[in-house]
Design a protein that fits this description.
eight-stranded mixed beta sheet; 41% helix; six-stranded parallel beta sheet; 545 residues; alpha/beta; Rossmann fold; 14 strands; single chain
C-alpha cells in the first residue's frame, strides 16, 4: 500500500458521526469530525474487524467503490458467491460475508484510499484490481511506461509479417515462445492492442486458471491506450468466478475466458467461432492438447478465416504423446522464439540458481475437514492452514539460519512470507540477529509505522539487506537490486511461482545481477504431493540449473 496521508475529511457527516458515537463520543454533532481525527488518526485492522457491521450500515451504502470490493471478494472466492447488480446488492453481499482476513484487508484498503489526501496517479497501491467487465476509453488511457527490449521488437516484426500473410491465406497460426521473466503477456497484449484490435478484430484469450485470466485482462487495461480507431474498448473476463459465458456480447472487443466456461455454453462458443473478426490466443499453449482446448481449436479451424496464436514458455515439456497434437494445433510453426539462455547471455536476465532447503516440517499436521473442503473448492490452502505453517517455530528458525549462513553470497534478498504475521515474525527475528530487515504488507499487526513505499525505497537504495513481503512485490514494484528470493510460502500456482521468481531474474543489462538464487523451502506433504516440489511448476527454470 502507498504512503497514504489519511484524513476523515472525505467521509460524510453521517459516517463520521456514526463512527464517533460508536467509539464513545458524547459531544455535539459539529465536533464529531475533530474528535474522531484525534482518537482514530487512521483506520486499523482491529478497527475494521470490530466495526464491520457499522461500516456496512453507515459507510458502504454511500461508498462509490463498493462494487470493486465485491468483485475482489468474488474473484478470491469469498462470500456467498452471488452476482449482485446494485449498490444495495453489493452492500448486502459484504454484510453476508464472514469477517475474514480477506474481507478486513479489502475494507481497510478501501477506507485508506478513500481518505487519502495526497493521491498519486503513479502510486502502487498493492490493491491490484481488474473488474470482470469494463468499458475503457483508449484516448484517455495513461501511456504505459515500459520500454520494449530488442527481442520484443523482433517478435512484433515476426507477428506482423505473418499477420500480413494471413490476409491472403485466411489463416494465422503459430506459437510465440518466451521464457519466464521475459514479459510474454506484455509482448502479446501490446501487439494485439497495436495491430489486431486496432484493425477492428476481436480477441478471445483462453487460459486454464483464474489468475492467468485476471493477469491477462489487467494487461489489456494497462495497454488499451495503444488501440487506434476506437473510442471505447469492451473487456470482459469469463470464468466461474467472473462473468458467465452467456453474458458475452457481440460488441465485446476482448474476451478473456477459461476454456471450460466456453465448453459449457455451446451456443456462445459457436457465435464466437462464426465471427470473421475473431483472433484467438491460447495462453500456456502447452496445455492445448487437452480435450477441452482441442475441441474448441478444431471447431475454429473448420472455418475461414481463422487466427490462433499460442503462448508458452515450455513447449518441450508437453507429454511426449501429445507433442504431435500441439504441433498440428498451431501448424508446427514458431512465429517467434526467445531463448532463456540467449537472454542470460545478453545479460537481460540473471542466471537462475535453484536452491532447495528441506524443512522436515509436516505441514499437514493438524489438518481439519474444513481445511480439506477449502482446498477442494478453491485449490488453495485455507487461512487457518497457512497460519499454522507460518507459526511453525523450527521452520522459521531454519529460514533465518539458512540466510545467515549464506548472507554474503545471497546479497539483497526478498523473502516471500506466508501472511502478515509471518512477515512480522521473520523480519523481527532477522533484526534480532543483526540483519537490516523490514517487511511490507497491507497492514502491521502492532500498528507501527512502515509505509510500504518507504520500506521498498530503503531496500532499493541499500538501506536494508532483506525485504520480507506478503504478495505485494510480485508485480508492479520496481526493485532491480534483488539477487535472491526466498520462497517460504507454499504454492501450487504456476503464475505465482513465476512472478516470485521473476523478481530476481533481472540481469545486469536491466540493472540487476549476474546470478539469481531461488531458494525454495520445501516441506513434508502427504495428501497434497503435488506441492512437494514447487520448482516442477517452472520446468524451464529447472532445465537451466
Amino acid at each position: 500500500m502507498p504512503a497514504y496521508r489519511f484524513s476523515w475529511e472525505p467521509f460524510s457527516d453521517n459516517t463520521v458521526r456514526d463512527i464517533a458515537l460508536w467509539m464513545g463520543y458524547g459531544g455535539a454533532e459539529s465536533g464529531a469530525r475533530a474528535w474522531l481525527s484525534d482518537h482514530l488518526k487512521r483506520p486499523t485492522p482491529e478497527f475494521i474487524g470490530e466495526a464491520k457491521d457499522l461500516l456496512v450500515k453507515s459507510w458502504l451504502p454511500e461508498y462509490p467503490g463498493t462494487q470493486q470490493i465485491v468483485d475482489l471478494l468474488i474473484e478470491r472466492g469469498v462470500g456467498p458467491m452471488s452476482n449482485p447488480r446494485s449498490q444495495r446488492g453489493y452492500v448486502q453481499y459484504i454484510r453476508d460475508c464472514r469477517n475474514s482476513k480477506s474481507l478486513r484487508r479489502y475494507l481497510l484498503e478501501a477506507m485508506l484510499r478513500f481518505g487519502d489526501m495526497d493521491p498519486s496517479p503513479d502510486a502502487d497501491t498493492g490493491f491490484e484490481f481488474t473488474p470482470r467487465f469494463a468499458i475503457l476509453s483508449p484516448n484517455d488511457q495513461a501511456a504505459d511506461r515500459r520500454r520494449p527490449h530488442r527481442y520484443q521488437l523482433e517478435a512484433w516484426e515476426s507477428l506482423n509479417a505473418h499477420l500480413g500473410e494471413s490476409r491472403s491465406t485466411g489463416v494465422f497460426q503459430g506459437l510465440l515462445i518466451m521464457p519466464t521473466g521475459s514479459g510474454k503477456t506484455f509482448t502479446a497484449v501490446h501487439w494485439l492492442a497495436s495491430h489486431v484490435l486496432s484493425q477492428g478484430m476481436r480477441v478471445l484469450w483462453l487460459a486454464h486458471r483464474h489468475e492467468l485470466l485476471t493477469h491477462a485482462a489487467g494487461e489489456f487495461h494497462r495497454l488499451s491506450g495503444l488501440v487506434q480507431g476506437k473510442d471505447k474498448l469492451r473487456v470482459r473476463i469469463v470464468s466461474g468466478m467472473h462473468c458467465g459465458a452467456t453474458q458475452i456480447d457481440p460488441a465485446d472487443d476482448v474476451v478473456v475466458a477459461s476454456v471450460h466456461s466456453l465448453a459449457r455454453s455451446v451456443q456462445v462458443s459457436d457465435e464466437l467461432l462464426n465471427d470473421d473478426r475473431l483472433f484467438v490466443v491460447v495462453d500456456e499453449a502447452h496445455h492445448a492438447p487437452a480435450k477441452s482446448y482441442r475441441d474448441f481449436i478444431r471447431a475454429l479451424q473448420s472455418r475461414k478465416p481463422w487466427r490462433i496464436l499460442g503462448l508458452t514458455a515450455t513447449p518441450t515439456r508437453t507429454i511426449e504423446s501429445e507433442r504431435p497434437v500441439l504441433t498440428r494445433l498451431f501448424g508446427g510453426r514458431v512465429l517467434a522464439q526467445v531463448e532463456l539462455g540467449h537472454l542470460i547471455e545478453q545479460r537481460i536476465l540473471a542466471r537462475p540458481i535453484p536452491v532447495i532447503v528441506r524443512t522436515d516440517t509436516d505441514v499437514e499436521q493438524g489438518l481439519t475437514p474444513e481445511d480439506l473442503a477449502h482446498y477442494d473448492r478453491f485449490n488453495e490452502l485455507s487461512e487457518q492452514w497457512l497460519d499454522r505453517i507460518a507459526k511453525a517455530t523450527s521452520r522459521n528458525q531454519l529460514i533465518i539460519e539458512h540466510y545467515l549462513e549464506h548472507r554474503e553470497k545471497y546479497g539483497p534478498t526478498l523473502i516471500f512470507a506466508i501472511n502478515v504475521a509471518h512477515a512480522a515474525i521473520l523480519s523481527e527475528q532477522l533484526r534480532d540477529r543483526g540483519v537490516r530487515a523490514d517487511y511490507v504488507a497491507s497492514y502491521r499487526p502492532d500498528g507501527s509505522d512502515g509505509e510500504p513505499l518507504e520500506v521498498v525505497k530503503r531496500f532499493r537504495e541499500g538501506g536494508l539487506d532483506v525485504l520480507v513481503n506478503v504478495q505485494m512485490v510480485t508485480e508492479g514494484v520496481d526493485v532491480p537490486s534483488i539477487q535472491t528470493v526466498f520462497l517460504t510460502r507454499p504454492t501450487g500456482s504456476e503464475i505465482l511461482m513465476r512472478q516470485m521468481i521473476g523478481r530476481a531474474l533481472r540481469g545486469p543489462a536491466a540493472g540487476g545481477s549476474e546470478k539469481a538464487y531461488l531458494v525454495s523451502f520445501e516441506d513434508q506433504w502427504h495428501k497434497l504431493r503435488d506441492w512437494d516440489s514447487p520448482f516442477q511448476l517452472v520446468p524451464d527454470i529447472q532445465d537451466l540449473a
